[in-house]
Amino acid sequence: AKEQGRNTYRFYTPQMHATSMEQLTLSNDLRYALERGELHLCYQPQVSFETGGLIGVEALLRWIHPKLGMIPPDRFIPLAEDTGLIVPIGTWVLHEACRQAMMWVAQGLPSLRVAVNISAKQFRESDFSDTVKAVLQTTGLAPNLLELELTEGMLIENVTQTKLTLQSLKDMGVTLAIDDFGTGYSSLSYLKHFPLDRLKIDKSFVKEIAEKSGDAAAIVEAVVALGHSLKLTVIAEGVEQQDQVDFLHNRKCDELQGYFFSRPLTPQALEELLRKGVNG
Ligand code: C2E
Ligand code: CA
Ligand code: CA
Ligand code: CA
């Protein structure tokens, strides 16, 4: 639905001028961001309930623009998707995350799974699984340490092709997570047809737990139960407060991620955390 919106006509108003000029400048600058080394990854810890230890990280993209400073991904990833730049950028992210994770392994630090966000356009490239394979080969990272975060919408678009791509990734040994679970299509039937490993409960539901909204609590509870009945592990994102931790713990959510544990960290800061031995 998002993509359809981009192709439809819109009326132009003078107020739109500033934003579209900015978009245009950003789109243009983004073309050079990669080669100029302006893109960086930070890594947010994911914690296991059972052990309380650090078990994985999610790689999150940052653009340090020379004039505008830090531009959050929500502002430039949509532009990268529109222009197709998301494909080379996404390949860079995959490579950089695997290279970094392999470096930690080589330094003898405890093994961490690294989760990489994949955009729909990137996933639909006919050679996507070949790209993943090549990245694993060149970096030497064990495939089971790479997790791909996909969204519901991109899976149900072309089910036959999706199944083939997911299966070839599974055959490689990569793990697969559904990101932002619960926000997209409510067609749950696809879940059991795809070889998935993990459901990631969207942070909007986690947020509402703290606001004591009965609906969100029921949704979280249902998602955990659904995930477990399909033999998937369940991770909650956006965990900020103790009462959310307690709630998710009582509902047997397997893993947690959020500011309560840590903000996304630079590779150096994450390394320090690993050296302190917070792994479990
Ligand atoms: P996402 O995949 O849902 O990532 C989680 C977002 O929640 C991240 O925002 C993270 O910093 C933020 N977050 C983590 N813990 C908390 C918390 O406790 N509270 C709150 N309120 N937020 C928290 P970020 O880094 O700004 O990324 C935004 C989105 O940009 C991501 O959402 C993802 O969709 C996209 N993105 C980021 N990196 C990449 C990438 O390398 N490739 C692609 N295709 N998309 C990316
Ligand atoms: Ca994600
Ligand atoms: Ca998410
Ligand atoms: Ca999101």
Summarize model confidence as the mean pLDDT. 90
Compute the number of strand runs. Answer: 9
DSSP helical segment count? 13
- How far apart the termini lie comes to 41 Å
**What amount of the residues lies in strands?**
15-25%
Largest sheet: 8 strands, mixed, barrel
Order of helices and strands: HHEEEHHEHHEHHEHEHHEHEH
User: Low-confidence stretches at least 5 residues in length (pLDDT < 50)?
Assistant: 1-5
Major sheet: arrangement of strands: 1-2-4-5-6-7-8-9
Percent helix: 40-55%
Rg on CA atoms, Å: 19 Å
Taken from the alpha-carbon principal axes, the silhouette is globular
Structural class: alpha/beta
Bound molecules: ligand C2E, calcium ion
Protein name: Diguanylate cyclase/phosphodiesterase with PAS/PAC sensor(S)
Domain EAL: 23-278
Describe this structure as you would to a colleague.
With 280 residues, the chain is α/β, with parallel strands linked by helices. It is built from 13 helices and nine strands. It has helices at residues 2-7, 14-33, 73-83, 86-106, 120-123, 128-139, 152-155, 159-172, 190-193, 203-210, 214-229, 242-250, 267-275, and strands at residues 39-48, 54-65, 69-71, 113-117, 146-151, 175-181, 198-201, 233-236, 255-256. A hairpin with a 5-residue loop joins strand 1 and strand 2 (54-65). Helix 2 (14-33) crosses helix 3, helix 4 packs parallel to helix 6 (128-139) and helix 10 crosses helix 11 (214-229). One calcium ion (CA) binds next to loops. GO terms for molecular function: cyclic-guanylate-specific phosphodiesterase activity. One of its GO terms (biological process) is cellular response to nitric oxide.
